[in-house]
UniProtKB/TrEMBL annotation:
<comment type="function">
    <text>Forms part of the ribosomal stalk, playing a central role in the interaction of the ribosome with GTP-bound translation factors.</text>
</comment>
<keyword id="KW-0687">Ribonucleoprotein</keyword>
<dbReference type="InterPro" id="IPR043141">
    <property type="entry name" value="Ribosomal_uL10-like_sf"/>
</dbReference>
<dbReference type="GO" id="GO:0006412">
    <property type="term" value="P:translation"/>
</dbReference>
<dbReference type="InterPro" id="IPR022973">
    <property type="entry name" value="Ribosomal_uL10_bac"/>
</dbReference>
<dbReference type="InterPro" id="IPR047865">
    <property type="entry name" value="Ribosomal_uL10_bac_type"/>
</dbReference>
<dbReference type="GO" id="GO:0005840">
    <property type="term" value="C:ribosome"/>
</dbReference>
<keyword id="KW-0694">RNA-binding</keyword>
<comment type="similarity">
    <text>Belongs to the universal ribosomal protein uL10 family.</text>
</comment>
<keyword id="KW-0689">Ribosomal protein</keyword>
<dbReference type="InterPro" id="IPR001790">
    <property type="entry name" value="Ribosomal_uL10"/>
</dbReference>
<dbReference type="GO" id="GO:0070180">
    <property type="term" value="F:large ribosomal subunit rRNA binding"/>
</dbReference>
<protein>
    <recommendedName>
        <fullName>Large ribosomal subunit protein uL10</fullName>
    </recommendedName>
</protein>
<dbReference type="GO" id="GO:1990904">
    <property type="term" value="C:ribonucleoprotein complex"/>
</dbReference>
<comment type="subunit">
    <text>Part of the ribosomal stalk of the 50S ribosomal subunit. The N-terminus interacts with L11 and the large rRNA to form the base of the stalk. The C-terminus forms an elongated spine to which L12 dimers bind in a sequential fashion forming a multimeric L10(L12)X complex.</text>
</comment>
<dbReference type="Pfam" id="PF00466">
    <property type="entry name" value="Ribosomal_L10"/>
</dbReference>
<keyword id="KW-0699">rRNA-binding</keyword>
Length: 159
């Protein structure tokens, strides 16, 4: 059993994580092996995402009044993944979830100061990265110009 001072320290730690993060993801990690969790932590750390495992009762206390709406149902073993970037924490958890089927489930999270469900967090996770979006825009801008150049070239060949 944890001492009251240790519980208060854990709640303050969780509150600090909630306060300093742009988005936070609630993760159910039931069935995750220690070796897989080590891989998860290192891959998240490489992307600037922090990961904490905590007790649900302490997490619920830390979440009180921190965001608008209703806290999503937190079943099973719960951890939080959070980062200063709004999209990286759900994306990295989702990427790990794709490679390790059935070990992680996104339960919901906090985004833009509101509690959101797992479907919303999955939508955020599947948004392409900034570089991919920029390359798509460049391709869309280049395509009509390229077609025009080909058409002008064909007309010049006929004359």
């Amino acid at each position: 059993m944890l001492q009251k001072s240790r519980k208060e320290e854990m709640i303050k730690d969780l509150e600090g994580a909630i306060k300093n993060s742009e988005s936070l993801v609630f993760v159910n990690f039931h069935g995750l092996k220690v070796s897989d969790e080590t891989k998860l932590r290192s891959s998240l750390r490489e992307q600037g995402v922090s990961y904490k495992v905590g007790r649900k009762t302490l997490l619920k206390r830390a979440l009180e009044g921190k965001a608008e709406g209703v806290v999503p149902e937190l079943g099973g073993e719960v951890a939080i993944a959070y980062s200063a970037d709004a999209i990286s924490s759900p994306r990295e958890v989702y990427n790990f979830q794709k490679t390790h089927k059935g070990m992680l489930n996104i339960l919901g999270g906090i985004f833009d100061g509101k509690f959101v469900d797992s479907a919303y967090m999955m939508e955020l996770a599947t948004i392409p990265s900034r570089e991919v979006l920029l390359s798509k825009i460049a391709f869309l801008l280049k395509s009509p110009i390229q077609r025009l150049a080909i058409a002008v070239n064909e007309v010049s060949k006929k004359k």
